[in-house]
Amino acid sequence: MQITINNKMHQVDVPDDMPILWALRDVLGMTGTKFGCGKSLCGACTVMLDGNPIRSCVTPVKAAENKKITTIESVSEQPAGRAIQAAWQEINVPQCGYCQSGQIVSATALLNSNSKPSDEDIDNAMSGNICRCGTYTRIRDAIKQAADNLEAGHEG
Question: What is the DSSP annotation of 65-124?
Answer without folding.
Answer: TTSEEE-GGGGGGSHHHHHHHHHHHHHT--SS-TTHHHHHHHHHHHHHH-SS--HHHHHH
